[in-house]
């Protein structure tokens, strides 16, 4: 049983006026009402270089905002991610955040002379809330949900974060106000349940 | 039958000294030897903002380097992509290039009041050459190759580019020089075959 008393919300949408941000704020409101400690990171507010310039060959120094983000990831016992699916994948801003923050030595540690690795972020759970412009069942069934697999299996669980729950909301494009309102209410309720 | 006389090579690795770059150069050498016209874009050399700041709500103006890249994509009849798989996905630099360049009106056009769209980049084929730090069969079988699905199905084919061939090379980590040399030779031969 995970108490989920320390919740970190990460909003990966670059647009300060996005629906994703509204969803994240609704979740935060619900979670705060339960007395949970909540920290929120809106990536569009951070100052950091999005590109991992030398890949894994040479270190790129962490900016203060990324150091704080690492501290908050270590602090949290539940991490809730909000982002849109663009091109079957994450927006570059969020991908860059992961490339820069989920470093060897922080998120995982490769074993010498072995293809295996140690997972360094164990003991935390996560929830991905992901918007898309296609019907969510179509994204799962026909495309096999590549962004979900990349994020859940190959990023979060790779680093020891589990279980990882996924909620998909779509299609956003052409959606009615009532659809958007319904999901905002749902997020607030997720927050209250620390889901 | 695609004549493939205009080949565009796009290297998405941010590191100027990467193995991906060496692979791209080997392919270029082979293709030039056949008399094909070849253009190469190494993303680490371009000047552009990686983040699509307002999503699809508000236009972000294209930098000259991205305008040139769009011209080269329109010019090419075969596009060869080189990049590493990081976190089951593309490096942020390449994802940002796609977010910024593959815009509505350039790569696709959504139809009014419909979830369908017109594909604007028809008549071009592509080849993805993708390196990874895990065994390639494991990436396909266990993880269902999310970066391949995102890039092939939800980016290139979504925009009308097809067929899309995929070549995976891995694991790169702990690989021997002979393994790396073999794949460099293979790329040169792919270039000669305009594969």
The neighbouring-strand order within the major sheet of chain A is 2-1-3-6-7
At the fourth level of CATH, the homologous superfamily of chain A is Flavodoxin domain
What fraction strand of chain A?
A: 15-25%
User: Could you spell the SSE succession of chain A in H and E letters?
Assistant: EHEHEHEEEHHEH
- Please give the count of helices of chain A: 6
Instruction: Indicate how many domains the architecture of chain A comprises.
Output: 1
> How many beta-strand segments of chain A?
7
Q: What portion of residues of chain A is helical?
A: 25-40%
How does the major sheet of chain A shape up? 5 strands, parallel
Structural write-up:
Chain A has 195 residues and is of the alpha/beta class. Chain A has one domain: Rossmann fold, CATH 3.40.50. Helices cover 35% and strands 19% of the residues of chain A. Chain A is built from six helices and seven strands, in the order E-H-E-H-E-H-E-E-E-H-H-E-H. Chain A has a five-stranded parallel beta sheet with strand order 2-1-3-6-7, with helices on both faces. In chain A, helix 1 (19-32) links the parallel strand 1 (6-11) and strand 2. In chain A, helix 1 (19-32) packs parallel to helix 6. The model of chain A has no long low-confidence stretch (mean pLDDT 96). At the A-B interface, helix 3 and helix 5 of A face helix 3 and helix 5 of B.
């Amino acid at each position: 049983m995970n108490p989920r008393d320390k919740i970190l919300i990460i909003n990966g949408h670059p647009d300060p006026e996005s629906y994703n941000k509204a969803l994240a704020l609704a979740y935060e409101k619900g979670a705060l009402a339960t007395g949970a400690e909540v920290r929120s990171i809106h990536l569009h507010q951070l100052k950091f270089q999005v590109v991992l310039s030398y890949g894994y060959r040479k270190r790129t120094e962490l900016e203060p905002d990324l150091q704080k983000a690492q501290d908050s990831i270590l602090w949290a016992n539940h991490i809730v991610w909000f982002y849109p699916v663009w091109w079957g994948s994450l927006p570059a801003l969020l991908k860059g955040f992961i490339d820069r923050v989920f470093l060897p030595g922080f998120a995982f540690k490769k074993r010498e002379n072995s293809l295996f690795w140690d997972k360094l972020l164990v003991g935390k759970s996560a929830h991905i809330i992901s918007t898309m412009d296609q019907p969510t069942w179509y994204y799962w069934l026909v495309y096999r949900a590549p962004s979900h697999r990349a994020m859940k299996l190959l990023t979060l669980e790779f680093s020891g974060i589990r279980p990882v729950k996924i909620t998909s909301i779509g299609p956003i494009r052409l959606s009615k106000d009532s659809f958007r309102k319904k999901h905002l209410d749902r997020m607030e309720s997720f927050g209250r349940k620390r889901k």
